Amino acid sequence: MSSAKVIVILFFYTCTVRECVQHDFEPVKTALLQTWAEKLYFELWNCGEYITNRKSLQSKYNKEAKLEGRNGQVLAANISSVIKSMMDKKHQALKRILDIVEEVAVSAHDKAAPGNEYKVRNAKPKTATVNTSLPLDYLTVNSHFYNTPVNVSYSSVHVPTYVYDRASDVIKAIKWSEHLDETFKKNYEKDPRLSWQYFGSTTGFMRQYPAMEWPNKPVDLYDCRMRPWYVEAAASPKDILILVDNSGSMMGQSKIIARHVINTLLDTLSVNDFVNVLVFSNVTNEVVPCFEGLLVQATLANIRELKLGVEHIAEPNNISDFSEALTRAFETLEKYRERNMGAMCNQAIMLVTDGVPENFYELFKSHNWKNGTMGMPVRVFTYLIGREVPEIRDMKWMACANHGYFVHLSTVEEVREQVVHYLPVMARPLVLHQSHHPVIWTPLYADVIDPKMTDYEWEIKECLQQRTDTISYKKTKDQFFYPINEAKRKHSRMKQELNQNLNINRQKKYNLITSLAMPAFDKKTEMTKVAHLLGVVGTDVPESDLREAMSPHLLGVNNYAFIVTNNGFIVTHPDLRPVFEDILKPNYNSIDLTEVELVDSDNNPREFDQSILTLRDYIINQTTGDQEITVKYHYDDMRRATTADRHYYYSVVEGTPFTLVVALQEKHFGYRVKIPDRFQSLNTTRASLLDYFKDDEWRIHPDWLYCRYDYDEDNRTSFKSREEELRHFLNRISQKNNSWNKWPPPRFYSESYNSNGTKKSEEKFDCKCNCDKDLMLNLIYDANLTKGIFTEAKNDTEKKKNPAAVLMSLLPRTEFEKRFGVTLAFVATHSGLTRWMDYDNYEDKTKIPSDSDDSEKNKKHFIDENVYSIEEVWYRRAVEYNMVNDESYVYSVPFENENIKSSLVTASQAVFVTSKENKKKAAAAVVGYQFRHSALQELFTNITRQCYSETGCTPEIHTCLATDRDCYILDNNGYIIASENIIETGQFFGNVKGSIMNMLVEEKIYKKIIIYDYQGVCFKPDKEDDANSSSFLYTPIHHVKQLIGWLIGRLLWLAAHSNFQWMVSQAQAIFEDIPDYQEDEENNYSSDTSSNLKYEGEKALKYVMIHRTRPKTCDRVVNLFTLASKIPEKVERKSCARPYELRKIMNTNLILLVVNECKDKLTKTVKFDTLPQEVPYNESLSCHKAANSLPRCRPKTACIRTHPDEHEIYDKMCGKGTTIAPTLLVFFFSLFNFI
């Protein structure tokens, strides 16, 4: 009986459609195309409406919910106040640590260093001196410290690898710094949101709370004195010019040590410093030619460029002209000083050489002592290189006479420890003033990761790739060189290199932070007349805490907030993408505001529009205001783009170098949902709270604060998941005797201190936790409305209006799944709640065929990758497209899916609350479903190959069965949703039929949007000569070394080649468990072709070896496309010049496109894709940016660079040398290094 009803309804619908079409007196072909589009709309629309139950949910929201407007200026002021409160708490904690450091250092000043009986809680117990460490007991995983095992009862000590942990000055400071533990613990008790607390000593060790075991993989390069928080706090900002001697005597070991000195000096700089490196012999040149006459900001990208220049310094030659080099350095520094450029504070020259011919008294007198020796503007630090015992008097005098420091270096091992001595010297004026302890805030940086690890980790990945290719060659032999296998490897490599668009909130490998730090001074300075910097105290502010404090749920979808520093750099932003392939990008922490907010203009790359430059000036100068700009932005892995009008509101975070900016799309997203009054107090709904969350098919936003305990104390306050945690708090709230209104807000929402620094009286709360009540109430309201949304009975009234709804309800579940291939329905709300229901997972969980490949069996569930609600691509697209058509579903398929058979289509539509008074609306939720692409493919094929009784229609001629006609369904960004050739699914249409795509753009069906990616990473061949490197000057010894290297290489090759079979057999034994490649491709090639693809010996090795690369910062450009907001429902071919016809599929983001293949062949074959390409400049990106640098503001901390008592120190403390008695062993060792 049910089947009969279904047939009757289908017949009724078919007849109705045919009658409508017959009344249309357009040509048969046009009418047929219209029929196809209507049938596709009917099937997709009704399936979506039935599965998602959208109208029911929308009516629920519109029944009670109201709207409230978003005031950008108020939001910006409130968020900046919240962040200021957070920073104030950290600042007060630092002051308490600082006071204890300076107090206990004074009391321990005259005490002797402890003996071997004294034991330390070493953070690296495995590498510590034997029998000197206390065990790190009872380390437990703590969610507050990135799920690191810690012990909050005490601190631990980290000592750099090259610092002896039992040296007297080191162990003495470690001993007295134990007194910090009590202060650390009290700080943590006062502020549960406080992150790591630490004290970094000038001796090299760092005491960190809470205690943890330090990770030693892959290698421990950490030295607190090289970290941004230490460098910036230890001394005021500085301009540094490094002069490196390249005369003929700087050969062998001297050259190696000199390079290490330069690299270490560069590692001690931060973004508020400016630097350049000059190499001199008989002439003086910059190691990076395009930096000529400049001091460049010490960003990671510029430091990297300078290090590459140092790496390619020419072979030593000639006699050095010290006068020219020093004169040029002084003139450059004077230019920056007089024009108020650069750091605008300290200045220094670092001279690296193996000896000087004189002390250059007259030169210093004319350039540095114009106003006497008391007010000299430039300090001079000298680094004497070499094992032999030279005359050190002149070198030391140059440093002492110019308020610098002298170091004699004879081995590579001592470089890092000795070079950092310049920092306490630069800090001496600060220490002598005593009263001023500046607090600094660092830019964004990765917690303990050394910037140099980028190259190392990429090299490891390439080594693994080389291993994979080598094993593949061993297993497949000649098949390795088949074009199809080569194409696969190339495609895999390309995907790896393009994997660099992960937003900051999605990457989980690195703990990105900003730090507050303050210098600690020796209070004995007045008595000893030695300005001793004890070290630096600091604490971290995780970037995730800043995002949490911005209350993204209040801003809503497609609105956001971000933070900018005095340098114009981003601290946090939704489009900040700091990693590629799980590796930190070379310039990840110096991304400028202008590089993430892209103005909608036709300007060339880095020709920034005046509107964004004006906004940037207001922000870095820390003003308050607002500005509207039309921008363009990308999403979905940089495959889609659109434009919008954004209103920027900016507000200063007082007492910091940060400015908070709120960006709103007020035209479309200027309102938010306001829940009904009955949910505000929970009085009427308290008992049923847990009922809203009975099942397990729901998740909440993992990064938003709902409710959280202050501490991970035990099993009662730590949870396996955010959902378990939420249920726990809902259970507490639902109890009748619970005082929900007395629960505390998030800790950083309330000020703990008055403006004069006095502590406010603490409020008493019933829960040692913090909750965002507004977010919790919205979540409970959404949960109430969405509970059972997919299983509730469909409205009978809707059935009568829609015959399709009757048809849907009559179909059994198995018939329904078979017809539409639906696998899952979902809903996500503005409060961060995501619910779903599986359609193919009830009884047999859709048994996977035994012949399915691993990708199908290991395929992740929808919810594993879609828990971020309003930040998900399908959510954003649905809400955005609602502005075009408020009844549209938005469809998408995976890009270039390699496994089409298991591919799913995702469809989503926004649910809005509309005001009855002013017709304004706000996004409340997005509903959607997923279904198998094979079902859509079958539907598309069946519809477009039928005539539907049109007069004069022959399927083989007038439908998509015709050999001269290609049919497609394209989405609003030009990607193929369905095609007769299923392999084309997910591809960009321009990569299939570029000439037709160009026509669609020319006729304004699609609009082209040019996106510049200023955070790109490109991959330069490792052996490629750097365009900015100094030219290589060959000497006779260089040719001898080349000859020896060639002879050794030939001998090794002969040995390997002669025993090749033996090596293969050994490799076979090692890798015998590795499965062979599929050999199905072998039969695709003729015997002649196969013989041409055989390579052996050295030739095979050449093809198997991958091309090693080095990641570098670059700009990339990509042309993206979006469907015009208004296109005609019917676009037909008017002449042979337009070989296509299309129809908009109603209430979707799709178009049905029919291409006349014969006509298309008359046009020139063109193919293009939406993959980013490097922007070519005439020079490197760093050079281009240096020549077109943007303005900045120096930090507002006072510049303290001189003190009248400083000269007394330099009479007795301005450096030290190393004396090594020459021995026969040293002679032979030096000879070996020379060779």
From TrEMBL:
GO-annotated cellular components: voltage-gated calcium channel complex
Membrane topology annotation: Single-pass type I membrane protein
Residue span(s) of domain VWFA: 239-423
Gene Ontology terms for molecular function: metal ion binding; voltage-gated calcium channel activity
Endpoints of the signal sequence: 1-18
Statement: the UniProt record of this protein carries the keyword Acyltransferase: no
Location of this chain's protein in the cell: Membrane
Record-linked Pfam families: VGCC_alpha2, VWA_2, VWA_N
Keyword flag Nucleotide-binding: no
Main localization, broad class: membrane
Keywords: Calcium, Calcium channel, Calcium transport, Disulfide bond, Glycoprotein, Ion channel, Ion transport, Membrane, Metal-binding, Signal, Transmembrane, Transmembrane helix, Transport, Voltage-gated channel
Name of protein: Voltage-dependent calcium channel subunit alpha-2/delta-3 isoform X2
